[in-house]
Amino acid sequence: MITIKDIAKEANVSEGTVDRVLHNRGGVSKKTEATIKAILKKHNFSVNPVASALALKNKFHIAALVPDFNDADLFWKSPYLGILKATEDVKNFGTQVSTFKFNQYEKASYLAMFKKLLKTKPSAVLLVPTFLNETKEVVQFLEQLEIPYFFLNIDLEGFNNTAFIGQDSYTAGYIAGKLMHSNQPNLCNFLIIQSRSSITKNNAIFKRIEGFNDYFIKKNVPYKIETLKIENLNNQQETKKAINTYLKKHSDIKGIFVPSSRIYMLVDGMEQQFLENIKLIGFDNTPQNIKCLQNNSVSFLISQKPFDQGYESIRIITDYLIKNKIPDHKIFLPIEILLKENANFMDRHELKIENN
Amino acid sequence: MITIKDIAKEANVSEGTVDRVLHNRGGVSKKTEATIKAILKKHNFSVNPVASALALKNKFHIAALVPDFNDADLFWKSPYLGILKATEDVKNFGTQVSTFKFNQYEKASYLAMFKKLLKTKPSAVLLVPTFLNETKEVVQFLEQLEIPYFFLNIDLEGFNNTAFIGQDSYTAGYIAGKLMHSNQPNLCNFLIIQSRSSITKNNAIFKRIEGFNDYFIKKNVPYKIETLKIENLNNQQETKKAINTYLKKHSDIKGIFVPSSRIYMLVDGMEQQFLENIKLIGFDNTPQNIKCLQNNSVSFLISQKPFDQGYESIRIITDYLIKNKIPDHKIFLPIEILLKENANFMDRHELKIENN
DNA sequence: AGCACTTTCGTGTGCGCACACACAAAAATA
DNA sequence: TATTTTTGTGTGTGCGCACACGAAAGTGCT
């Protein structure tokens, strides 16, 4: 293992000088800089990140702005746990992370938490840009202060975010279509469930639907795909009534696609006869959804690997700060296909965290 | 962030004493030990692994004994890359890893490489116990020297291995059955391909087949499942002839299950008419197999996450050595379902390694 | 040549921990 | 009581790096 000291010796300079060229700190004559760089390259040198981390203790500070979660809506719990785990992992690498949670239904809360966040003078910011206009506002502050920012899970266009970490929603929807088709190869109709609240704010859901539809278009299979809009999928009464009356009228529906994480609400409301005869495909490995897999009411879940999204985000930002490693602009996590048998194996790391 | 120094101050002892109780090094009076332990617990203290690693520089040495790979059989490449990546990651954590590759078809090679390995005086050993009797022999040495050992990918019973890291082959096979069924819901026959070489040596393949069959038994679906034994799946001529003649005789076959990583050999040999009408399910995300997904000849691949197996193994052993963290006895990695659309997203980390 | 700067570079300290060594007090032995 | 052994504890050094401070060398000017 080669060290800075070794490099310094070989170049007949002091460690300090090597350090200066390593960090582009300036104050080194062109000649010696060239010599040192040559030696660096020759040995393919890179600093010992462990020693570096120790020396850098508490130099960087990452702030994360993510939606809050509760028992009714657990989706954001996993990314949060991922962030938490990463926080722990990078803590000893001289980087601290503070997480701010906002109410995903209130723009004011988003802005308020951001203001709080800004006061901590972060070196970089990770955020879930839930609201377009408010994000524009927020980003102005960040750009003025030259704080790099990263988008998590929601991929807004037209911003100078260093990177986006999330899922390829279109492909995920496309896969859903494929699975649905292979599950019901005989001609029948499918139903897509939308909810009002998601329509206004979540373009990932749009892209999933687009992907789902495109599968059938591309394959040129003449399935009819209908859409049922339920005002608020979180409302049990409403959902129950809406889905059952619809299905009674349309007995040709053999598959239902729920492009949000609320498929369990649908399952809760659906009458037994429908559950038995209709294939369901949904998104996200929340505990409630997993339960639906386990009792056979849902065939497939497609997971965005939410835990990994949180975890990777922090790791990527840390690498960016400490090692100046520029990430890909778009970082897609794997699309996981979950069914009853492999659902319980998922997110071993996640479990570990929660049990602490 | 609380440090040993803080603990020492609070206990009115020196850092050395705290260090002694932290590492059970002995030589501390019961009274002070109790005091210190109380304070430790009170603050929920754990050592800074970064500083620890720096100080421990090169104290531990892990040796891995894994099968070699070549272009014809790439399966073991991924675990190797995983080990390599982990090697890099833990290098700066005071742990070095050396990997020894043996010819998986020659017992002598297994033993020979083990002897070489043993000379490096490893603190722990990771091995793929390909041969039962030879492993018994090998393990004797290890136990005598009190070197802990871990099994990777092959789960031999009756050993005192600290842990097994691999896949739940039975469930993976079960999933294969389920996917096959949902892909061909109308009554038809399925074919399982076995090869002589695998029969003798790989019980994972047995378990997969068992799982596959059990799915249909449990679901009580009256599919007929036949088996075709091909002497050597690596032999192109033989495979081609065997599969095509078989399929010509049995036109009722609508699905083929290949419980090994050689599905691409089958695809290579199969005539176009069969490829178009028969659903194929295989194992392992080798490049050749992925290609089969991409050109639509294979419907699903089930992946053992071989890269992660290698990576996690080393990480687990490192944690065991450095932090005395006792792992679960059996560590199953997630069973991944790959289809054309999500195959390319897999193993981002793996790509990174290989491009270096 | 003398002076005031600027550029270029070396030295020293600390990050938190592991461990060897030194040394005191207590206990055991003569 | 004197001496040896054991037990308990403090001190110092180094792991590889980051960075502040200040010294040396170089520059331009009068």
Give the tags:
homodimer, 356 residues, alpha/beta, Rossmann fold, 3 domains, six-stranded parallel sheet, six-stranded mixed sheet, 12 strands, 17% strand, elongated, DNA-binding
* Secondary-structure content class of chain A: alpha/beta
Number of strands of chain A: 12
Number of helices of chain A: 17
What is the ordering of alpha helices and beta strands of chain A?
Answer: HHHHEHEHEHEEHEHHEHEHHEHEHEEHH
Strand order of the largest sheet of chain A: 2-1-3-4-5-11
List low-pLDDT spans of chain A: none
Largest interface: A-B, 34 and 35 residues
Shape of chain A: elongated
Largest sheet composition of chain A: 6 strands, parallel
What is the CATH homologous superfamily assignment of the largest domain in chain A?
Answer: Response regulator
Gross CATH architecture of the largest domain in chain A:
3-Layer(aba) Sandwich
Distance between the termini of chain A: 36 Å
Write down the overall mean pLDDT of chain A: 88
- Tell me which oligomeric state these chains represent: homodimer
Helix coverage percent of chain A: 40-55%
**CATH class type of the largest domain in chain A:** Alpha Beta
Radius of gyration of chain A, rounded?
25 Å
Q: How many separate structural domains of chain A?
A: 3
Strand content of chain A: 15-25%
Give me the CATH fold name of the largest domain in chain A.
Rossmann fold
